[in-house]
Design brief:
Length: about 600
């Protein structure tokens, strides 16, 4: 008849877990001989290898798993036999003061194997889980803690003093509120059971042992009502350490906040788009520079072309689109694309693709308002052009003026010498000589007067007599005053001067002088042609054009060093100086920007100090 193993084994061990006594019933239940196990570690003998988890003392780990009050431990788990098999058993560990422990192993009835196996499975999961789990009765008294919770609050019941030592003072009230809420939370069908889906998870601060009271760690805490669960019948508190995740999130938030602050502090517009051209990030400077009322917050998540329509913002949206498609297609950084806006300002746009793991994931656009720089640059270009033109004109003028002055002075010197050397010359010869001297002297005086006038205009020592006039009237008077000269030159002048516009503060006499000078230049260079004079008003400025369509459009040279060249060069310089003193500009066909002389005079309430 086979021997039936007794369902109970009693073993005594020393404080280090080594076998002191091994009963006969233990031999029968566990299959070990007493002589072979005395002095050996009981944990090495009866704890299955799969439950040791690399522990140096498996029995100590067993004790920790079933530790209760006053050091006594009780648990249900598999126990190993000598042949390597294991069976479900109740294990009770009772301390012997200063001697060691009594370990009682009781085999469970076979009919409970399935249920016990389930309990072992869940206990194994809880025992190795980093989740802090604690169960309380509805009245708030502690009943059970998982090993992770025991490591946090220590052995025994987590009393109020223990809780106060490990829970941040500001979080104690929050935990109590969650406990009460879980206990009293109603369900739609009645009752008080709170499901996991409805349970609220909050972050609290706990201070684990061994941190010297300096380190607070963050735990995600959930309180659930499991009173109706037969296996629990209590309020369960779950907490998991999320310090690293919280710290990483805070670092990311701080990093993002720094980036956002930096981007918002920039004076340039920033726009980051994803691969589908939706805005991911934008700053307020972008809308301000583009002159759009759409805020940066409204742009995020939207297609920017819908909220920032190019046709309403850019003077040439077609060129913008073509440039954008070119940059996106080539996928390389590019800088310095210049575009004019509809309000007259100028921006420069830079582009850089954004890559992650070698794949393009977005686009970065940087927009800068360069209106002032462009204005300065264009002003310098215009000034350099004007200076080059003036230098050329002055060179021609000096050569022509020298020739022009030399002719009358030579005549004066020649006739004066003749009168001195031939005192007895006939009266009619003496009269011819005297008339020639007088005529050339007057011619020289006119040239000197023009030079003094030019010097006074350019040096602003010659005052202007300003008054409000209708510019077409002044131009009409200049055309009328040129009638005799036009007749002698064989030219006809056609005037279109009925334009309407505001009054303009000018010196009418000087302005007539400028227009007549331009008429004289055209007539001298192109005798026998038609001269068109047109007066218009647009964009807050008056414009006067003087030219011969048949000749000036061909770019003929207006200034030469011939007999009439000095007069042309000097007349142009005087006309240009007069226009400049009135705050305007005078363009010539020589610049290639116009096919006629073009005077532009802005309407201004006053001129600089010193004119008047």
């Amino acid at each position: 008849m086979p021997v039936v193993p007794l369902p109970l084994a009693v073993v005594t061990v020393d404080p280090d877990g080594r076998v002191l006594t091994f009963s006969h019933s233990a031999e029968q239940l566990l299959g070990f001989a007493q002589a072979d196990v005395v002095g050996e570690s009981l944990g090495e003998l009866i704890v299955p290898a799969r439950l040791r988890d690399g522990a140096d003392d498996p029995l100590r780990e067993l004790f920790d798993c079933c530790a209760g009050e006053e050091g006594q431990g009780h648990c249900v788990q598999p126990v190993r036999r000598a042949d390597g098999s294991d069976f479900p058993a109740d294990v009770l560990i009772t301390p012997l003061p200063d001697l060691g422990y009594v370990v009682v192993v009781s085999a469970l009835p076979p009919k409970s194997d399935e249920r016990r196996q389930s309990e072992w499975f869940h206990r194994a999961l809880v025992g190795r889980s980093p989740v802090v789990t604690m169960v309380y009765d509805p009245d708030g008294s502690w009943r059970w803690s998982s090993p992770a919770a025991v490591r946090l609050h220590g052995p025994g019941a987590p009393t109020a003093d223990v809780a106060a030592s490990i829970v941040h003072p500001d979080d104690l009230i929050l935990i109590r509120k969650l406990f009460v809420a879980a206990l009293n939370a109603p369900l739609p069908g009645g009752g008080s059971l709170t499901s996991a889906a409805n349970a609220e998870t909050v972050e609290i601060r706990l201070r684990p042992p061994g941190t010297n009271g300096k380190e607070w760690r963050v735990y995600a805490l959930t309180v659930q009502n499991l009173i109706d669960e037969p296996a629990v019948e209590g309020i369960a508190i779950y907490a998991i350490d999320v310090t690293r995740a919280v710290d990483a999130e805070r670092r990311e938030q701080l990093h993002s906040a720094r980036i956002d602050t930096l981007i918002e502090s920039l004076r340039v517009g920033i726009l980051v788009e994803d691969s589908d051209r939706r805005a991911v990030l934008a700053n307020d400077a972008l809308a301000r520079i583009l002159g759009s009322p759409v805020s940066a917050q409204r742009l995020v998540g939207q297609n920017t072309s819908e909220l920032l329509p190019p046709a309403e913002i850019f003077a040439d949206p077609i060129a913008l689109r073509a440039e954008t498609l070119r940059l996106l297609a080539q996928g390389k950084p590019a800088t310095g694309s210049e575009f004019a806006l509809t309000d007259g300002r100028v921006i420069v746009r830079d582009y850089a693709p954004i890559h992650a793991d070698g794949v393009a994931v977005g686009h970065l656009w940087v927009v800068r308002d360069v209106t002032d720089q462009v204005t300065i640059r264009r002003g310098l270009e215009e000034r350099n052009r004007a200076l080059a033109e003036v230098a050329t004109l002055k060179t021609e003028f000096v050569a022509a003026a020298s020739h022009e002055l030399r002719t009358p002075l030579t005549s004066i010197a020649t006739f004066s010498q003749m009168l001195a050397e031939e005192p007895d010359a006939a009266a009619d010869q003496r009269q011819i000589a005297l008339e020639a001297i007088a005529r050339n002297a007057n011619r020289t005086l006119r040239i000197v007067d023009d030079l003094l006038t030019l010097a006074g205009l350019e040096g602003k020592t010659l005052p202007l007599a300003l008054r409000a006039v209708h510019l077409p009237d002044v131009v009409s008077e200049a055309v009328d005053g040129f009638a005799d000269s036009a007749l002698r030159a064989g030219v006809t002048v056609e005037l279109v001067g009925n334009a309407t516009g505001p009054m303009l503060r000018v010196d009418p006499a000087r302005l007539r002088q400028a227009v007549e000078a331009l008429l004289n230049i055209v007539a001298t260079a192109h005798a026998g042609t038609r001269i068109d004079v047109r007066v218009t008003f647009a964009a807050a400025q008056w414009n006067v054009r003087v030219g011969s369509p048949s000749a000036l459009a061909a770019g003929d040279h207006l200034f030469t060093t011939g007999d009439r060249g000095a007069g042309n060069a000097l007349s142009f310089l005087i006309a240009r100086a007069i226009v400049s003193r009135h705050g305007g500009q005078l363009a010539t066909p020589r610049t290639g920007q116009t096919d006629a002389f073009a005077i532009s005079l802005p309407v201004r309430p006053h001129l600089p100090d010193g004119d008047g």
